[in-house]
Specification:
Structural class: mainly alpha
InterPro entries: CHP03086 (IPR017520), DinB/YfiT-like (IPR034660), Maleyloyr_isom (IPR017517), MDMPI_metal-binding (IPR024344)
Radius of gyration: 15 Å
GO molecular function: metal ion binding
Distance between the termini: 22 Å
Oligomer: single chain
Order of helices and strands: HHHHHH
Helix content: 40-55%
CATH architecture: Up-down Bundle
Protein name: Mycothiol-dependent maleylpyruvate isomerase metal-binding domain-containing protein
CATH class: Mainly Alpha
Organism: Virgisporangium aurantiacum
Number of strands: 0
CATH topology: Four Helix Bundle (Hemerythrin (Met), subunit A)
């Protein structure tokens, strides 16, 4: 992923998460997900909190009111609107970033990153959690090879140090026939 398409990748990941959350049935919010010990609601809270965190790092605005790594499993109001506000904050923050900016603040332990990688990290978070929610609720995968390829570039650049914090499970071995989506999921410790 380079300077020219990071906004497209971020928009695509946001749309994947938005679409999957809109497709969650009323009885599916407490279902288990590929995120160990988290329900659909908790994954949504985590994903929304992370998007708010990325926005806050750029704008200096408020961080999430709840710890994204210890989600309560309770959302007041409409989950779709809850996510929409978080995605709007994130997209709005990245709209202020120059395409070729060399140092963009992030909430990651790595700190500031080039624009393409900061946005790629934000997109990776939204895209993979869209997949988690889709799998948990029986929806089709929102990850396409066109989206997974650039997300893998970002993942290879940021994920290894984050595994030490428990943000990602250990990578799983590649399998014959893996496409870009399966390769990304295995790299992030998920079974395609």
């Amino acid at each position: 992923m380079g300077e020219q398409n990071w906004k497209t990748v971020l928009t695509g990941s946001h749309e994947a998460l938005r679409t999957v959350v809109a497709g969650v049935g009323p009885d599916a919010w407490d279902l288990p997900t590929p995120c160990d010990q988290w329900t659909v609601t908790q994954v949504l809270q985590h994903a929304a909190g992370d998007q708010i965190g990325y926005a806050a790092a750029i704008t200096g605005g408020p961080y999430p009111t709840e710890d994204p790594f210890a989600p309560s499993g309770r959302i007041e109001g409409d989950p779709v609107a809850y996510l929409a506000a978080a995605l709007a904050a994130s997209a709005g923050a990245y709209d202020t970033v120059a395409v070729d900016a060399e140092s963009v603040p992030t909430p990651l332990p790595q700190g500031a990153l080039p624009a393409w990688l900061a946005a790629g990290a934000c997109a990776l978070d939204a895209g993979v959690h869209a997949w988690d929610i889709a799998v948990a609720t029986g929806q089709p995968s929102p990850l396409t090879p066109e989206l997974a390829g650039p997300l893998m570039v970002a993942a290879r650049a940021i994920v290894e140090p984050l595994r030490a914090y428990g943000a990602y499970a250990p990578a799983l071995p590649a399998a014959d026939g893996d496409d870009e989506v399966a390769a990304l999921l295995r790299y992030l410790g998920r079974k395609p």
